[in-house]
Amino acid sequence: MLKYAFRRILGMIPMLLLTSIIVFSLAKLMPGDSLSGEIDPRNTNPQYIAEMREKLGYNDPMPQQYFRWVSNFIEGDFGKSTRFKIEVADVIGERLPNTILLGLTSILITYLLAFMMGSYAGRKPYTLGDNLIGGINYLGLSIPSFVAGVFAIYFFSFKLGWFPSNGSVDIGVTEGTFNWWLSRLHHVLLPAFVLGFLNIASYTQFLRNDIIENSRKDYVRTARAKGTPESKIYNVHILRNSVIPLITYLGFDIVAIISGAIITETIFTYPGLGQLFLQSVGVRDYPVLLTLTMMFSFLTLFGNLIADILYGVVDPRIRLD
Amino acid sequence: MKKRSMLMLAALMLVLSAFLAACSGGEKAGTKKNDNEGKTGETSEKPQDGGTLVYALDSAPEGKFNYAFYGNQTDQYVIDFFDENLIDYDAQLKAQPHIASWKTTDNKVFDFEIKKGVKWHNGDELSVKDWEFALKVIADKDYEGPRFDNVRNIVGAQDYHDGKAKEISGIKVIDDYHIQITFDKARVNNLDNLWTYPMNRTEFKGMAVKDMMGSEQVRTKPVGLGPFKVTKVVPGESIEMERFDDYFGGKPHIEKVVIKVIDPSLSVGELKNGTLDMTAFHPSIIDQVKALDNVNAITYPGVSYYYVGFRLGTWDGEKNVMNEPKYQDKKLREAMYYAINRDEWVKAFFFGVGKPVNRPIPTNHWIAADNKELDQYKYDPKKAKELLDEAGYKDVDGDGFREDPQGKKFVVNFSHYATQNPTFESRAKALTQYWEAVGLKTKLTMTDVNLYYDMLEKADKSVEVFFGGWSTGSDPDPTPLWGSKALWNYPRWVNADSDKLLDQALDINVVGTDSNKRKDLYVQWQKLFMKDLPVLPIAELEETMAVSKRVNGVKFDVSGMNRPNEWWITQ
Fold first, then answer.
1. pTM for the complete prediction?
2. Which residues on chain A are in Cβ contact (under 8 Å) with B476?
3. Of the candidates B493, B477, B471, which has an alpha carbon nearest to the alpha carbon of residue B540?
4. Is A118's Cβ below 8 Å from some Cβ in B?
5. pLDDT category, B54, cuts 50, 70, 90?
6. How many CB atoms lie within 10 A of CB B571?
7. By the 8 A CB rule, do B277 and B53 touch?
8. Which of residues 63-92 of B touch A (CB under 8 A)?
9. Contact criterion met (CB below 8 Å) for A312 and A1
10. ipTM of this complex > 0.90?
11. pLDDT band at A138; cut points 50, 70, 90
């Protein structure tokens, strides 16, 4: 398995290199650069813009710009954000905790609810409860997150006033205190739920169908024949087999945690990486944009690897060599 | 992977904006005329102390919270709460003494005096050395902000910038309250262009200029002179400020200010709930804001205007050359102006907060010529047709559209910039319909906004007739926009008389310090501009602001809002 993982990691290097070429050329193909756009004739003079373009190296030939970027990138120098004028690592560092908190909470909510609903529906298929859960799930699957987000804000923030509609924390509370964490949790719950909405639905259905399928298998019949209590059959025998497909999803979820939720974060004005990504595209903040895309690409590859390895761990029948 | 996500993103944004519009429409319908809260605030006249003001920004600030370094307007909104300009601008955008007052006899050497006892938030007393410090930071070779133009004209600033001198020779500090600044030559707008924002020199002591922009003194712990002091910054999200009791303009009434970033689609709901007190908003939602009982939707004169330009030439790298024949015929341009029903168009697409404009200067600026003195070009399709006939643009092949004087097909290629704003395409389409109504075949191209300005800057051949807009500042001089050597002169208009008038208006030997004489020259220039019509001024836009009824004492004019220390909240 170690050998397998090592081989996969080595294989990532050319893939990442190719990705970087594509990402870089696509970014540069976007019309305009970080200096065009909002021109204020009062205090922007053409000379200044020309000077800055020269300073930032936008006038150099493309391959030269690419190699400069890549070599700096490999050395861990991601450059300075053209928008914030601070190191890209700092810009990302400011927002990463928010995104991770959002991602983790959303996954927690997803798994918790999916588990509860899935095992109930799987145990009592084709009953009223199962159909109700199925109905909610299909609703969840069919509502895109940005629609769900707007509705959630409308009902839970504006009508009921349960959750704040924007931000990641209340500015009035002192950082690090219990109240501060409570406030962060309060802010993150609604976007996390919206983010998890779609996943809850698919995970629930996965689990339900798997439980139903397993409950018809021979080993279950044998267990019943031996007189094993029904609850033990479901909670131990079937569940252990049914969670296998779900666990493998964890690998992909890792990517989802970091890459954030572009739409959800924007709607909730939640300062995370997704929102940062969107804004960076808008103002052509190449250093931030490129670093984020590379980060997401790497995590996608990495998440795939984790998923593959997890397959082997939870299901001994699958061998990785 | 990236490309796909971008495409998806674009698609999602489209659907999102449509949905948001629909949803907020529903919200408005749900707004019943409930009880008249906020009325009490209007009746009691005496300002009350205390309270927290929540102010919203529509996008995340970049965090460059210092006048010398900020880059966009969002940051400026924040800085305005906690820092101060040394001079002030009145409702006609004329400079007025504020912290600093000045004397000059020749508009070359200025003697400034600042008020005594003005305090920084950290307890230091303001000295002209703080101002000198700011000027030197901006003139430094490592300074990366865009403000060097506001310092360049001081004697010796260029040498300091190039590293040839240790000091800026044109700046002479006399004592803590007096400073003399000498410009390289006498200009009427030297003061308008001068950088008049001090920086606290003890806060930045010992820091290299290139590190300043990213320092915590700029980003998270800024120190200013303004009515509120920053107590906490959550980057990209919110800023908390508290009252600064020693503010030189008088102790503020409001206890605390919280500035938050709120997505524009949420601002109506937040205003309605009373969780937001003040925000600038996009004119397209003005009806929803007006429908709220607890909020006043305020419009005040702005300094921006929109125009339709004709590319008359190219940019040769240094100056404009007028060599593009297609639109050189003035009668064609006039006809296209007469063909536009600006009243109707502005009403339809500017949500009642704009009005037609007749000159390339906003109406509220002190140099703006009176409408009586200018050609009005009122909507007159008949006259437009006559002019086109006269100029030889006639329909010779009977397809319903005019051909050019040589009898060749004539198509107006009109470009408009495209953003996520769905009204842009329809307003551009409306203009093309006006022209088609007088027999000019028109083709509309919508171009992504970044690419659009890139193309205009390079005088790209494919842009022939274009929609544009400018926001002007307090300096009245139109040279950077319409001078023959100006890069921003997108129509590439070259006119010797115009250059001469613009130069004269800045020439101290011609106008002296007499602002009436100066205005006169600018009026002449505007007349010339409107006679020659390199662009068709279309409309000017008012600024829009939502202010909760519990907030009192906020006043607006073309220079912006009054200082927040005069505001107060009904308790």
1. 0.78
2. none
3. B471
4. no
5. very high
6. 11
7. yes
8. 63-64, 69, 71-72
9. yes
10. no
11. confident
